[in-house]
Amino acid sequence: MPERPARGRRFDPGAVVTGLLFLAAGAVFLRSGLTGRPVVEMLVFGPVVVAGLGLAGIVHVLTRRRRR
User: Fold this and answer.
1) How far apart are CA 62 and CA 24, in angstroms?
2) Verdict on whether the full-model pTM lies above 0.70
3) Whose CA is closest to 29, among 3, 37, 2?
4) 60 Cβ contact list (under 8 Å, min separation 6)
5) pLDDT tens, the chain, 68 aa long
6) What residue intervals traverse the membrane (predicted)?
7) Distances (CA, A) of 6 to 13, 15, 30
């Protein structure tokens, strides 16, 4: 029986934006933990994370619409 070649995954820019957002958030928390001082106040950090996730969602919706 001949085997089919494996299909690759499509590039998803929304996943890249989300991954970069979480990497940045992790770096901020790591730096805060290592220095003992907050790098960014939580009153600023929370809305920035929510806005970043919103941006990632918008990118995902726009690129999905373009693929179809």
Assistant:
1) 23
2) no
3) 37
4) 12, 13, 14, 15
5) 667 666 777 788 888 888 998 999 899 889 988 998 888 888 888 898 899 889 888 888 888 766 66
6) 12-30, 42-62
7) 22, 21, 38
